[in-house]
Amino acid sequence: MMKSVHAKKRLGQHFLVNQDIARQIAEAVRTSDAHVLEIGPGMGVLTQYLLQQSFTDLSVIELDEESVAYLQEHFPQLQERLIHGDFLKFDLEEYFDDNFVIIGNFPYNISSQILFKVLDHKDKALEVVGMFQKEVAERVTAQTGHKQFGILSVLLQAFYDTEYLFTVGEHEFAPPPKVKSAVIRLTRNFDKRLNCDEQLFKTVVKTSFNYRRKTLRNALSTLNFPAEVVQNDPLFTRRAEQLTIEDFEHLTRYLEEKK
Fold it and tell me: Does residue 145 fall inside a structural domain?
């Protein structure tokens, strides 16, 4: 019988060892009538508590072969729902016919990519609950005017309600990471709709924050806004972190009208 899995730095593995925190993460999921997918279960510290919840279904996806072997041995009830693969390459549309929930103690080296993939599937991804590096968690949940307010904040909050649940110290993991962690929850809010072209909105947001120390007059110069708009709209005198989601929509509509 395998006793444990060796944590691999290249996969960003830090195994949560605090059972109470694992239970709290599992119980933080509010959506019970959906399929749940756990990313990177490792040795199943979170999986064991997810199996105790009343979800419609539970699947897990794991890239590490050693972890897959461990899970097969210790969680035989997951045999048909244990996916050996890379979440970032995984076809969610093909696997899920209906809505789903994402949960996990996410590998920190791909956590932002996980969130961008969730955005690509926002019409079916009803909820995300998970452990992130504290800095990323703060970025996701930051509000206008906060120094952490950025691209992830705007793009996610345009469609999701975001909540910072609690902070987790370094020594709750083996091996301990060099940074603090945090658990957050994202809940899809279908009342949130963009009043502009989504792809153009993303371009405006990303361009604005790529030059976040500059005023928008300079940061957005490559997008060729009409000169009279740049001159007269006070939004162009501000920096990206000072804008609301509605402000970014407003800017995007200028470019739509120009087209």
Answer: yes
**In sequence order, what are the beta bridge partners of 100?**
35, 125
Q: The domain containing residue 217 runs over which residues? A: 198-258
> What proportion of the chain, given as a percentage, has pLDDT over 90?
82
Cβ 125 vs Cβ 100: under 8 Å? yes
**pLDDT tens per residue, range 48-66:** 999 999 888 999 999 989 9
Phi/psi of residue 83, nearest 5 degrees? -105, 120
| Within-domain flag for 193 | no
What type of residue is 239? R
Residues 153 and 205 in one domain: no
pLDDT confidence bin for 2, thresholds 50/70/90? very low
Q: What is the pLDDT of residue 252?
A: 97
Q: What is the CATH number of the domain that holds 182?
A: 3.40.50.150
Contact 19, 45 (CB under 8 A): yes
> Within this chain, do residues 140 and 56 fall inside the same structural domain, yes or no?
yes
Q: Kindly state whether residues 205 and 161 are assigned to the same domain.
A: no
- pTM for this one? 0.92
Query: Per the structure, how many domains does the chain have?
Result: 2
Residue 160 backbone phi and psi in degrees, to 5: -125, 145
Q: Are residues 184 and 227 in the same domain?
A: no
